[in-house]
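The aim of this short unit is practical: by the end, you should be able to scan a pair of folded records and say something sensible about each. We start with the first protein, listed as its amino acid sequence and then its structure tokens.
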Amino acid sequence: MARQRENILGFDDLNIGDEWESAGRTITETDVVIFAGLSGDFNALHVDHARAKRGPFGKPVAHGLLGLAISSGLASHAPRVDTLAFLAVLEWRFLRPVAFGDTVRVVSTVESIEPQSRGRRALVTWRRQLWNQHDQMVQEGRTQTLVRARASSAPADSPAISAETVVRETDGER
């Protein structure tokens, strides 16, 4: 039996318009409580069942930023890309609430690819959409990542990429 390796894509494996859908993930009350603790956002809308019941959604809902964080995690596996850095959230919209028990998935689409550093890496702009189990888009936006070239396509004399190089190059020094 042959051993399979994980297929990690370089920017040169991507094409504008390519689209991937992640696996689903169910949002739990525990997720919301842990996120409230991490973020310090204990708004009654998220953590107080009695008050949230009288609120605009009639029940507690997840933090919008928890949805963004989960979408980032789900997108890191669909597709699996050799990402050097998450650079920007260009825009993000919160369209519908995410309730406890909702199962969400991310659809990621390549919008643009801008090779940099003599083709060793590229700035990739993504359209991300977070969908619930009812096929309703609950969040959407655009993000940018710095993605390494496929290992076999990088020039043989290319030096290793350090975190300092990534920061310097993304700050405009090329």
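Turning to the second protein, read its sequence before its tokens, just as you did above.
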Amino acid sequence: MQVQSSTSSPTLAVLASVTRSASEEQDTSGTQAATGSGTASGTSRYDFSNMTPAQMRDAVNRMIRSGELSLDETGSLLSIMAPPSARLKVDGTAVSKAEGEQIDNTPVDAFAKLRDGIAGARWRNDSAAEAALSRTLAALQRVQGTVSSVDILA
């Protein structure tokens, strides 16, 4: 993915950094696990209701590169899919490597997290955050269950 150095917003700059680092990481989990849930037919489908942050980074990065999703639509996923090296504790200190890897490999429900975020934005009367989170939720719902890969040897 090419990212111009003059990104118009801090959120897009951070997302570009996350997606760039995700594309530079080695995928040791295999295509089926990296993109979502699979079936016996050898077809994998995106399942954002049960995906690890590492899988989500890989899937979202792939969909941004293919044009299925945009940076604007996925900016609200930063806190969910941040790589272990970018995760911080509440006090601002970095999480340990082991903690980061555990978080990165624990499945999350992105839809539930986004709905919680929308509820929080409404409670704070933050219409900009509510709109951004709603845009991300709609984008993920649009691609949920679509084919992510097909194993022609299966």
